[in-house]
TrEMBL record:
InterPro entries: Glc/Gal-6P_isomerase, GlcN6P_deaminase-like, NagB/RpiA_transferase-like. GO terms for biological process: carbohydrate metabolic process. It comes from the Bacteria. This is 6-phosphogluconolactonase. It comes from Xylocopilactobacillus apicola. PANTHER family: GLUCOSAMINE-6-PHOSPHATE DEAMINASE-LIKE PROTEIN BT_0258-RELATED (PTHR42892), GLUCOSAMINE-6-PHOSPHATE ISOMERASE (PTHR42892:SF1).
Length: 238
């Protein structure tokens, strides 16, 4: 695990963007990248999109979402893909042929299809205050899980319900690449900012590997880079 401390969000955005650019350009053949939605990577995508758009050097890059919250509305694209399109895929002008949507219809074949496509070269991950990553929340998946459907009832359904204005559109499950699937990616880049992420980063870096903190398994990956600002890194010893 490599830990990189940065002074602020601007530095994190630029460094992460340049790291992704370098990784994408390290191959001339197909490059498979899975990226995260959410607030943390917003600045990364603002830095990255204009450098990717209309640049044929990146035409070999294919994009994957690693989780999805569907809807009872069959015309709804999905929360994650909706956000990824808004944050990055549309601003970067990514051809739809290079966007591979993980859905409730194809999740059972996702790992096999990824293998046939050469596997994931890299994943850009965020981390939740509770130590979750992708859709691997505490108590929802096991370390041996590949891509799975996670049942959402009670508090979990309320949690995903915040993404919908109409409660009738909230599904009773979500889809996620499980820990085993994530660990199969060749390179992991995890970013975090703010004091609210400090405990989660401590568990990732210095804590034991335990299901209570799902991201703790990531420290066992052979190529994990953690990029954090000073606030998020305030509890770790590195």
């Amino acid at each position: 695990m490599k830990i990189i401390r940065v002074a602020n969000k601007k530095e994190l955005n630029e460094l992460t963007g340049e790291m992704l650019i370098g990784s994408m350009l390290s191959k001339q053949t197909r490059y498979n990248l899975s990226i995260t939605a959410g607030n943390t990577p917003k600045g990364v995508y603002e830095y990255l999109a204009p450098r990717i758009k209309r640049n044929s050097a990146f035409d070999h890059v294919h994009y994957y979402n690693f989780d999805e919250i569907p809807s009872t509305d069959p015309n709804f694209i999905g929360v994650t893909m909706r956000d990824l399109k808004k944050l990055y895929l549309d601003p970067a002008g990514i051809d739809s042929k290079r966007i591979h949507h993980l859905t409730s219809e194809n999740f059972e074949n996702h790992d096999h299809n990824l293998l046939l496509a050469g596997g994931l070269d890299a994943m850009l991950l965020g981390i939740g205050k509770d130590g979750h990553y992708c859709g691997n929340l505490p108590g929802t998946t096991n370390f041996a899980d590949q891509t799975v459907k996670v049942e959402a009832k009670g508090a979990l359904k309320d949690l995903i319900g915040r993404h919908f204005s109409d409660p009738l559109l909230v599904p009773d499950y979500w889809i996620t690449m499980g820990p085993k699937s994530v660990m199969n990616a060749r390179k992991l880049i995890l970013i975090a900012t703010g004091t609210e992420k400090a405990d989660a980063i401590w568990h990732l870096v210095d804590g034991p590997v335990e299901n209570k903190y799902p991201s703790s398994i990531l420290k066992l990956h052979p190529d994990l880079t953690v990029i954090v600002d000073e606030e998020a890194a305030e509890r770790i010893n590195n």
